Amino acid sequence: MRKNSFFPLAENGVLSESEIAHYHREGFVVPRTQLPPQRVKELRTALDRVIANNPETRPEQLVSVHVVARGEEGVHGDDEFMAIAADPQILDLVEQCIGPDIILWGCQAFCKPPGDGMEVPFHQDGHYWPIRPLATCTVWIAIDDSLAENGCLRVIPGSHREQTLWDHSTSARTDVVLNQQVADERFDVSTAFDVELPAGSLSLHDVYLAHGSGPNRSQRRRAGLAIRYMPGTSVFDRSRSDDFESAGYRVDFSGRPLWLVRGEDKTGKNDFTIGR
Ligand SMILES: O=C(O)CCC(=O)C(=O)O
Question: Which of 4, 59, 71, 239 minimizes the number of CB atoms within 10 Å of its CB?
Answer without folding.
Answer: 239
